[in-house]
Amino acid sequence: DPDKAAPRLHAELPKLAGRWLRDVDRRLDGREWIACADFTVADIMMAGVLRGIRKTNLMDPFPRVKAYCQRCLARPAWQRTLVLYAERLGIGVDAIR
Hints:
The chain is built from four helices and no strands. It is mostly helical. The protein starts with 5 loop residues before the first helix and ends in an 8-residue tail after the last helix. The relative contact order is 0.11. The model has no long low-confidence stretch (mean pLDDT 94).
């Protein structure tokens, strides 16, 4: 980090994530899934993005997003995929859950 940008990025990340998550939270108002009444590829893609921040507190101010992420990641097909991926990596599934 020759430009010493990491501390600035770290400070800005909650604000940037908050703007984006606020929009997602608004989109989820009164709905279970992101695109329509059914679970679609849009939910798979969004869950993949949200999975990257699941162990942070960035979703805490956005209960609809947090609940949505939990719904997506709890789906049986997602869980089967995690198990298969963990097996391929030679690790326990809890290490990537």
